[in-house]
Amino acid sequence: MPVSTKNSALIYSALKQSGIRIMSALPETWLVHLIRMADEDPEMILVRLAKEEEGVGISAGAHFAGVKSAMLMQNHGFLAAINGIVSFAHLYKIPLLMLVSYRGTFGERDPWQTQGGNATEPVLRALGIPYLFLDSPDTVEKRIHQAQTLAESSLQPVALLMMRDLMWEE
Amino acid sequence: MQRLDCLSAIYHELEKCLVVTIMGAVAAELQSLGHRTNFFYLQHAMGLASSTGLGLALCKPNRKIVVLDGDGSLLMNLGMLSTMARYAPKNLVHVVFDNESLLSVGGFPTATRTGTDLEGVARASGIKKAMTVHGVEEFKAAVDAAIRGNELTTIVAKVEAAGPAKYVTDLALLENRFQFSRHVRSLK
User: Fold this and answer.
1) Which domain holds residue A61?
2) CATH of domain B3-186
3) Does B181 touch chain A (CB under 8 A)?
4) Number of A:B CB contacts under 8 A?
5) Given this model, what pLDDT does residue A1 score?
6) Could you read off the pLDDT of A37-90 as tens digits, one per residue?
7) Which of A18, B42, B45, B186 is 20 to 30 A off residue B168, Cα-Cα?
8) Smallest CA–CA distance from B174 into chain A, residue
9) Is residue A168 classed as helix, strand or coil in its secondary structure?
10) CB contact under 8 A, B59 and A50
11) How is B88-113 classified by DSSP, letter by letter?
């Protein structure tokens, strides 16, 4: 499977360095290595979800307990989690660090991913969610740290869009 | 069985737990008995009280977490039962007040009115200890046992579709949220 093991490890290591101790996840092709790494790490609590919106509650509970969390999801999972983001994370000022694999953009071969690709950034902007891209190994560590810092200081959801150039090796 | 009587019956037991409630009547009625800083009322995001309880239970394994859920909220997030069953935290007590109604938005019947059995769904999702109770004494005994026990438990309490006259209380959402997180973080 041409998902980048090396860059997945880079992302995982940056999450650990940022103090993340609980991760919620729903499998997606680009996330397979990240989820496996979380599963194999005794220092990480991995919560495999049935639907991404559950992850908002998991992260809120963790935040109340003072534990830093991250959410791993596909952009369609982000779209599926919107009510929880708005009526929990925004309403109650809950920090969320959302790592979103950005499917359906340039280079996408799966027709079924393309509509979600079009909707992702407009929806993030409409919700006022700050976001940045993870597109190069050079900036992964810094951007994850910055995103986590902003989520904690602003007490709001923050998204990192994981791009094909980083996640996929042709 | 009235939900308020159920809440009164377990109010004392809730003192040493972390409590997450759903919106509407459950939140208003628990507050009417007396707010405490260990109570968090999720006044929207239907379905996510149970998810929040799971997050707390996994991050605070030495504390008992009680989720006060409802049929309408749980039906919006049935998949959560499978997630809870998967991790089955021993310190999580999941109470579902089933009034077969979306009471706070006009009393429309939920699917439990027409036969959906939430205890059965919980059990089939993998929650080994699931039960349905119909009387206040039975309810109190079940909740007390679950709080003292050491196993994920879902207790479906069949209650009447009756609630308070109003749902908005004096406690601001963010005041409750910060009180609660401060309280949780103060615990060992």
Assistant:
1) 5-167
2) 3.40.50.970
3) yes
4) 109
5) 62
6) 999 999 999 999 999 999 999 999 999 999 999 999 999 999 999 999 999 999
7) B186
8) A92
9) strand
10) no
11) --TTEEEEEEE-SEEGGGT-EE-TTT
This complex has an ipTM of 0.97
Give the nearest partner residue to A93 out of B47, B174, B185, using CB atoms. Answer: B174
Q: Which class for A105: exposed (0-12), middle (13-18), buried (19 or more C-beta within 10 A)? A: middle
Q: Are A84 and B79 within 8 A, CB to CB?
A: no
Number of folded domains that form chain A: 1
CB contact under 8 A, B86 and A51: no
Residue A131: CATH number of its domain: 3.40.50.970
Residues of A in contact with B48 (CB under 8 A): 53-54, 56-57, 60, 84, 88
At B165 the pLDDT is 87
CA angle B117, B122, B126 (to 5 degrees): 145
Cross-chain residue pair A93–B87, CB shorter than 8 Å = no
Cα distance between residue A28 and residue A108, in whole Å: 14
User: Hey, what are A145's tokens?
Assistant: 């740290």
What pLDDT sits at residue B188? 83
Using CB atoms, pick whichever of B43, B58, B77 lies closest to residue A54. B77
A95 touches chain B (CB under 8 A): no
Q: Which parts of chain A are beta strand (E)? A: 22-25, 45-48, 69-74, 96-101, 131-134, 157-162
pTM over 0.95: yes
pLDDT tens digit string along B71-104? 999 999 999 999 999 999 999 999 999 999 998 8
